[in-house]
Design brief:
Two copies of one chain form a homodimer. Chain A is of the alpha+beta class and about 375 residues long. The first copy, chain A, is about 20% helix and about 30% strand. A six-stranded mixed beta sheet of chain A has the order 13-14-15-12-4-16.
């Protein structure tokens, strides 16, 4: 594995020291910030996430805060969701699109009681986009990246840890619901969310100086459940069919192409960027769609760029991400293919070394 | 050093295989792409750059292409430069600002003969910003990230290598001038530029499949001059006072604060984003300014977040980057401090471990 250079351009998480103490071995960057990716034992990390409970430094999930009289108006312009239906305390997974209807981020939107909106973003500079739109439309709104650092507790035993940490009320939170709380005097927002399908919560820390304290408090509450450090897990997220913006999307990917159609409110009567293009696409059908691919044993452990997919007639699309699947006992991947390529078809993928190997295809999610 | 996880979200450079063969040991990410940072011998890399010649994979310097009837109109809206004075074939270093006059990127702008504009960008999603402004203003322009990959040849012997590779004409190119050329049939644009003060050129490769070919061709032409691989060099760039956007800037930094005043055309009669705020700042003076700091021996080799700076009365700013300076024989850094703090003052810096150590300050650049 190559080394990662650090410096002041790539920011540190408030949990950086805690993850170091926990034995972090590798990082990636996301939103110009370091994110731990492993603590040296990928098998144990997958097992904890899928059978026990794991804690993740996901401070890179930056919160873009919209504040002021036009906060909701701006949110309505940049999110393809009916803001009239958004309720304070209940988060929503939203598509942000450009004027062509192309996906530019897929955040969770949080509306606070005081009218402030947070976009809990994937890896692109939403703050630039939101500021440009706000200023060009003369909206009375401030757009800033808030100093909020999420820590995720994920896995089948995550809610037991959350209850030990926060109290029984936390079990009542619905999916994507959130509310403020305190952990030993540390202010957090607790959200029933996280980038896995194993369940759990995210703690949105407000005071960056309390990162180590919060990390340690979670580790203590989780000790009886054998909690351990981890990170968003490529195997689990592909098994679960979760989208990774920027990995599984390109500069032409629309929400319809990546199974986000059900998260679009196309009937909203408002000036929403990309809406007209998306309505047209809903009528005419998307150019591509996302399916799963299953490699025969000996498939790639990993690949670092899109792999071309072929049927007998020629190129039909790309494998956009892949990972070994412990549940399947082989490598699996997500693919973006021409709309006429049905799951169930056998295709061929061109590996990084040029070899072509057969893959089975199937509907997503795998599980 | 920690490991770097790879994957399809972080893109590879067309020179990736060539840099692997050349022995790359570490990377950073920049514009969601991998950039080599070292080949394992920092001293040799610094020496090559400052006394000989080095070749760098700087494909991360992405080119945002503006095409169509309103390309120049868009460039005028988003760059604080008089587009009436821009000449095809002659690049310009420009400040891009938001509506508050805050720096959001500091690209080199290239105007091509056919009217296409390229912004050779630093590390932020300029494509989102430019697309938002273009669409909100109904400009007839296409904004895209072009598949262009710069390879830099830098150092006091760089022009000898460039001449061997391209011919004697290359010596006539003025600073930031550029023109199309071919290297053994490989189409490139040759620009007299690069992120060092050691001189040289950048070759903008158009065909990503020719990365290894171009790399090898440069290595061969450079062999008599003992060319070797390298990367943008923290020590050299701080000695030379070059700005690193995102490292030396925050969400309130204006061009005036970081010595970019001379690159602003504040008299331009056009609708330029941020112009009014910058004109006001030019009249009233910037809140902060950038100076150099010199550590006593034993200063930090490196730091990963801004370090707080104090005078006897209290906090006056931050050290934003630092590195060991072979020329000075100690660590040096760039600092952003209150405007009333003059170079020459002794200050104290709070290191990452909490210790406060004295630093001398001076005007930039160091050399």
């Amino acid at each position: 594995m190559y080394g990662m250079s650090m410096g002041t351009r790539i920011r540190r998480s408030p949990y950086f020291e805690a993850t170091k103490a926990a034995g972090v071995t590798s990082f990636t960057t996301y939103n110009q910030m370091l994110m731990p990716t492993s603590y040296g034992d990928p098998q144990a990390e997958y097992r904890r996430l899928t059978q026990g409970v794991a804690m993740w430094d996901v401070a890179v999930e930056r919160q873009i805060a919209l504040t002021g009289p036009d906060a909701l108006r701006l949110a309505q312009a940049i999110c393809v969701r009916d803001m009239g239906k958004v309720v304070p305390g209940q988060g929503k997974y939203v598509a942000m699109c450009d004027h062509r209807g192309v996906l530019i981020n897929d955040p969770v939107l949080l509306l606070h009681e005081d009218g402030e909106v947070w976009l809990s973003i994937a890896d692109s500079d939403v703050v630039l986009w939101a500021r440009a739109v706000a200023a060009e439309r003369y909206f009375d709104v401030e757009v800033r990246e808030a100093r909020i650092a999420p820590l995720a507790i994920q896995g089948p035993k995550a809610m037991e840890v959350a209850e030990a940490l926060l109290g029984a009320w936390v079990r009542e939170l619905k999916h994507f619901a959130f509310r403020p709380a305190r952990v030993d005097g540390i202010e957090v927002i607790v959200a029933r969310s996280g980038w896995s399908k194993q369940g759990g919560v995210e703690l949105y820390l407000a005071d960056p100086d309390r990162g180590t304290d919060l990390w340690n408090r979670v580790a203590e509450a989780g000790a009886p459940f054998e909690i351990g450090p981890g990170a968003p897990n490529p195997s689990e997220r592909i098994e679960s069919g979760l989208l990774s913006y920027g990995a599984d999307t390109d500069d032409a990917t629309t929400p319809h192409e990546v199974r986000m159609g059900k998260f679009l409110d196309l009937e909203v009567e408002a000036d929403v960027i990309g809406l007209a293009a998306l309505q047209r696409e809903a009528r005419e059908g998307a150019r591509r769609h996302q399916i799963g691919v299953v490699f025969a044993s000996g498939g790639p452990e990993h690949h670092d760029r899109w792999l071309r997919l072929f049927n007998d007639a020629g190129k039909v699309g790309h494998v956009t991400s892949s990972a070994p699947s412990p549940k399947m006992g082989c490598a699996i991947g997500l693919a973006l293919v021409r709309r006429d390529v049905e799951p169930g078809t056998e295709l061929h993928v061109e590996l990084e070394d040029g070899r072509r190997v057969p893959v089975a295809t199937r509907e997503l999610p795998f599980f």
